[in-house]
Write a structure and sequence with these properties.
It is a single chain. The chain is 31% helix and 24% strand. The chain has 248 residues and is α/β, with parallel strands linked by helices.
Amino acid sequence: MAALPETPALEARDVTRSLPLGGGLVEILRGVSFAVQRGEFVALMGPSGSGKSTLLGVIAGLDRPTAGHVLVDGIDITTMPESRLAAVRNAKIGMVFQAYNLIPTLSAQENVEVPLYAGQHPGSPAARAREMLDLVGLGPRAAHRPNQLSGGEQQRVAIARALATSPAIVIADEPTGNLDARNGENILQLMAALRDRTGSTFLVATHDQHVAERAQRVMHIVDGRLNGSDAVAAGATTPSAPPPPPAP
């Protein structure tokens, strides 16, 4: 008997998003469909105003599509009540932002612990947070607050936090946008290496060509539409990325 196909980490099915403008509606997303398979590292590229950030918000469950469906780990989040959606987001979706979005009054370890406490995950949040900081090369900096860390180190903490709950997918919005070239390259190497080491799934929105070079697959969005060939998940794999460099 043939094995059943594995459920994708993320699916968007004919997603449309319209917003009111001048007494009418303007379509930001126009029937976007694609899938991200488990363990893929996918880059989403597009110019400013292409709908890239809107699409990220919809697939992360932060905004609702006007039409269509978004499935995370096989769960349709499109019409889910907010009370349940928050729990699914916590368990299934990790987020990495351009501006890091760390809580300034908390240490690196405490920042990584936050989603673990919020979702009441099993085991010790402190032990899990330390494990994740070790994974991104920041174990010795666990007690430092964000203002005591470099930009690259803060983004490493954000990645550790995003992965702490073992989500189905990590969605990163311009994760290298606030970093210099060296630290940006280090973060890209880290995400690619984490995919190889842990099987984590990444969807990275960017305008940086270096991200595309690291990704297994690149999707292009223009005027709210994906290129036709971008909707199909590629089966090819890329060589393993080099291990992450030591923390600066």
